[in-house]
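Q: Okay, next protein. This is DNA-binding transcriptional regulator from Promicromonospora soli. I've checked the sequence twice, so it should be correct. Can you predict the 3D structure?
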Amino acid sequence: MSTTAGRLLALLGLLQSRAEWTGPELAARLDVTDRTVRNDMARLRDLGYPVDGVRGPGGRYRLGVGGKLPPLLLDDEEAVAIAVGLRAATVVTGIEESSARALGKLEQVLPDRLRRQVAALRSATSAGPVNTDSNVEDPAVDPGLLTELAAAIRDHQGLRCWYREEPHEVEPIRLVAWQRRWYLVGRDVSSGEWQPFRVDWLELRTPGGRRFVPADPPFDLTEFVVREVARTGWAVHARILVHAPADEVLARINPAVGTVEPAEDGTSVLVTGGDSIETVAVWIGMLGLDFTVREPQGLVDHLAELSRRYAAAVHG
C-alpha cells in the first residue's frame, strides 16, 4: 500500500469515527499539512465518497449522506472485539441467527491476517450455557422493538403502550440491559413517577405519545433498574424476614438479588424476586442465615417440599 493510499484509509477511518472534523484537527492526527488534507479530500470525492466541506476558519469536513459508502475500517483490536461480541450474542435468545450471519459477513470482509485471528479465536473457544440461574427460558429479544424504543429516546417521542395488561403513556429516557433482560427507563406521564419497564412485557400502541422535553432522572439509571426490578420487575416477588441485621444481609447478597430493609429486634426484610419460585428458593437458601417466609404461598409450599427432600437426603 502506498503512503497516499494508506493515508486516505486513515482519513476515512477518522471521518467515520466522528460527525465533524476541522482541517487542522485532521492534519494534526495524520501528521500532514492543511493543504495535504484538502488535496486528500478532493481525492476521496473523485473516488465517489460523499465528503462535505463547511467553509470557515480551518474548514470542517464530514461524511455526507448517499453516494458510495466508505468501507468498514477496523484496527486489529476493534475487529477482534466485534467478533467476540457477535460470538457471545449467538446465545442470546431472539438474535442468535442474525448474530451468526453478521459474524460470517464480518469474517468475509476482514483482511486475511485478521480473518485468521478471528477464526483461531472461534475454533479455540466454546461457551457454556448462559442461563444457569433459572429454570425459566430467557425472553426473546425483539430487535425491531428495541430499534423503535431507541428511536423514541433519540427523538424525545412519547410512547403509548400496554404493560402487564395496563395502559401507560411513557416518556422514555434510556434502555438498560441487565440479567439478560432489557428494561426501558422512563417517566410515567399519568403518575409522574420514574419506572423501569421490562421490554418483553411491553406492547406498543399506535399512535404514540406526545413529544416531550427530556429531564435528567435524579438517580443512577443502572442502580435504579436493579433496585426497582427487585420490587416490581420479576414474575415472582417475595418479602423474606431474615433473622439477622440488615448490614449482615447486605454483606452476603449480590445487589442483583434484591433490596434489604431494617426491621425490629435486629432482623431485616429482604425484598427479592425471580422468574420462578425455584429461583427465589435457591437465592434465599444461599444466604446462610435463618429466615421466615409467609408469602407468596407458592414459595412457602416449595420450601416445605425442599425441606422434606433435604431431610430425606440426610436421614435416608
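A: Here is a summary of the prediction. The CA atoms of residues 135 and 276 lie 7 Å apart. The chain has eleven helices and twelve strands.
Q: Noted. On to the next one.
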